[in-house]
Amino acid sequence: MQSIQFILVTFLFLATLSACSSDTSLEVRSLSESDRLIPVDTIAIQETDEDYIGNYDVLYVTNSPFRMYVPDIQRGRIAVLNRNGIIARYIGEPGAGPGELSGPVSVKVAGDRVVVKQSNGQGMAVFDTSGTYVDSYQFPEGVQSLGAHAFHTVEEGYIHAVTKSESVLDLPASPEQPTLGQFNNQFELEHYFGSYPEMYTEVEYALGEASIDLEDGSLVVGYNLTPDVQVYNAEDRVLADVKQLSHSEFKHPSEPLSIRMAQENQSDFMEQLAGVSLVRRTYLLPNRTVVQGFENRTLAFYENEHDPAEREDYAILADLNSDRQEALSLPGPILARDDSNRIYVELDPTPDQRTIGVYEVTGWDD
Prior knowledge:
It is built from 5 helices and 29 strands. The protein is mostly beta strands. Strands 1-26-25-24-23 form a 5-stranded mixed β-sheet. Strands 2-29-28-27 form a 4-stranded antiparallel β-sheet, with no helix packed on it. Strands 3-4-5-6 form a 4-stranded antiparallel β-sheet, with no helix packed on it.
């Protein structure tokens, strides 16, 4: 009897140690507590009655000289800011004609190209860096976009998160269903590659958008409903790894999220959305650190026109060369990363008080 009691006590003791260890591994740190993020700058956007920004969801940052490109969804143009947060000029104007923008949602700059993705199927618009309109492109027939921010410029054209249009309603996804496309500079599809994570091929999930980033020979891809990241070889487009990430605040879906529900019972669908985390950003920094940003939203977020007060922002930092990770809580979404190991985090979204924090991501010492 005593031996049995001893075994039980030992078991409980080990279980307690295990629980403590697990809790430690899931510790969530704030920006100020992070060992991997060093604050290097704060940018206050300078707005006046004449020059102001309506609404944006993501930025693009260049260095030498420093420029912050802000796709203003509401005002239909790209605001170009200097390091002091002053709006130096605009690219495009609202409308649907040549050189006009309809709901710009994201922007990339490569060489002398400023490439803008527009909402509601309006395609891509290309300008030069002086703001002169160059051309517009639509996705080829049969190609369906898989994300507002999911494209990247490369020397030979573009990589975009896309799939075949006829596959969009084919849920659960087929293991052969592509999720990425290589396009030339005229936005003609050259070939598909990539595939959904296994969770999407087993259960019906209507939320299949992706976020992508490309750096130093690797292409990372994140999907709405999983914290895990796919890593592709950027040269041959072959899947090289699946990086499993974890965060104690990440809420995995407990049941299917069908397209039929989204179409026929929007209130139920929004209620389900309030119970899951949504990955919004996937970045890869030059030091091989992956940054995955996600949001937890309340039902009021959807009912109150996406009120940022009804959203909590988080991130996972992970080293591609090891198993090391860090879980973070954030004051706002990650808006951009630059090519100098820095990320840009929204600190205050209030018009006339918009503030963005710049943080160097130091990564892990080998």
